[in-house]
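Consider the tokenized backbone below.
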């Protein structure tokens, strides 16, 4: 119940609880990585 509500609150209700957390971490890591790369290039 808590996992479902948490994933639904994050807008990732289509994914299972564990996968939503993994995808969220991957998105954050990719965003920070691309942000640092663009800062270095610029």
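A designed sequence for it:
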């Amino acid at each position: 119940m808590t996992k479902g509500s948490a994933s639904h609150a994050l807008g990732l209700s289509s994914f299972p609880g564990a996968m939503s957390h993994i995808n969220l971490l991957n998105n954050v890591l990719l965003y920070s990585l691309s942000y640092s790369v663009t800062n270095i290039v610029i």
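The two ends are 46 Å apart (CA to CA).
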